[in-house]
Amino acid sequence: MSLITLPILWILAVPAAGSSLYLLVLTLLSARITPPPRSTRTMRFDIIIPAHNEEAGIAAAVRSVLSIDWPADCFRVVVVADNCTDATADVAARAGAQVLVRQNTELRGKGHALAYAFHDSRQRGWANAVAIIDADSQVSANLIEAMASRMERGEKAVQVHYGVSNIHASWRTRLMAIAMAAFHSVRSRGRERLGLSCGIRGNGWALTHALLEQVPYTSFSLAEDLEFGVELGMRDVRVAYADEAHCNGEMVSGEKDARSQRRRWEQGRAAILRSRTLPLLKRALTARSLVCLDLAMDLLVLPLSYVALNAVALTAAAWLLAPAGVSTSPWFWLGLLCCAALVLYILRGWQLSNTGLRGLLDLLRAPFFLVWKLAVMFRGRRTTEWVRTNREGG
After folding, report:
1. Global pTM value
2. Is 105 exposed, middle or buried (0-12, 13-18, 19+ CB in 10 A)?
3. Please, which pLDDT band fits residue 199 given cuts at 50, 70 and 90?
4. What is the pLDDT of residues 304-317, one digit of tens each?
5. Which of 21, 80, 169, 179 is 20 to 30 A from 333 via CA?
6. What are the contacts of 71-74 at 24+ separation with CB within 8 A?
7. Band of the pLDDT at 2, cuts 50, 70, 90?
């Protein structure tokens, strides 16, 4: 094997094999998890909905939360009308929510709205915990029960399943449902079974007030959810996964809005990858923390489309770079095994996505989605500020 061929194959093989093995292990551990025994139904929750110009859909979100099966005197729905220029506050109040109006054009974004609401909840001293729901979401009736049953048994942070409410709006939303089932259900079930942290997923998560005192909320980046989940891990706090409850958000089906949303997500994740991976690995080594090691692995495993491209590139390179008389078959077979592991991971995500046969057929569009995604990332302008995604329901 030539001096050029070997380094190329190693460069492709290490991330492909590491990512594929990690995802395969979690796939094999993704059977449904038995919920804990029921709670005493006495915990008090402030359910916080951060909202910026959400007048078209905020009432539906508030009504969904108010229909949760939990004693009415043990939870409040609090909408944070953050820098709104529409009637979000009035609509939310008429729907039955308590409203906090926040105006600060310098400190914008979901992270600042959450910090404001958390401070207010702690100042009031009424609730035992806070739960965070996005303004475009519909929740299951057992949402608080799933959170409280774990908190009463010692968990300080809980994440329920975050799915897609408008699955059949387009092929794009069905692919998103499959991707989120893989990323949220498959990975989180496996990590929960191993006693690790599923991280914060941005929608449908909860914290005890005691944890907010221990770890003040200061996450204001484009990926504030990922950032805070990492911060919790660095403080030796895991996020438990409540698979039996869900919080489903609306995903954009149009190309224009999907483009800006995708760019914001991936740029935010890349920034956390650059800034937090080494501290997590250092903490994992010094504190012997499997939670921190896993959170670092979760960051190092790039979005699925890039992992798939890496595995395909390894397989193709092993075939194309084989010099006459020298076999690169081990690398070729490794590439195929990586591809097979990713196929199993994707199919498990599809199985849990409720997209049916249509979703399976939509997976044929995945190569075109990958090309679109790469074009969005390479041609798009870098952004450092939060931009609201347009709600199609409105």
Report:
1. 0.89
2. exposed
3. very high
4. 888 999 999 999 98
5. 179
6. 71/41, 74/41, 74/42, 74/43, 74/44, 74/45
7. low
| CA–CA separation, 182 and 307 (whole Å) | 14
Query: Please, what are the domains in the chain?
Result: 5-29+301-379 (no CATH), 45-275 (3.90.550.10)
In angstroms, the Cα distances linking 92 to 50, 54, 79, 148, 338 are: 11, 9, 7, 25, 49
Joined together, the tokens standing for residue 338 give 């990586």
Q: Partners of 160 in the beta sheet?
A: 242
From first CA to last CA, the distance across the chain in angstroms is 60
User: In this model, does residue 378 exceed pLDDT 80?
Assistant: no
Residues 6+ apart with CB under 8 A from 215: 231, 232, 235, 237
- From residue 294, how far is each of 192, 233, 310 by CA, in Å? 11, 10, 21
Q: Is the pLDDT of residue 4 over 80?
A: no
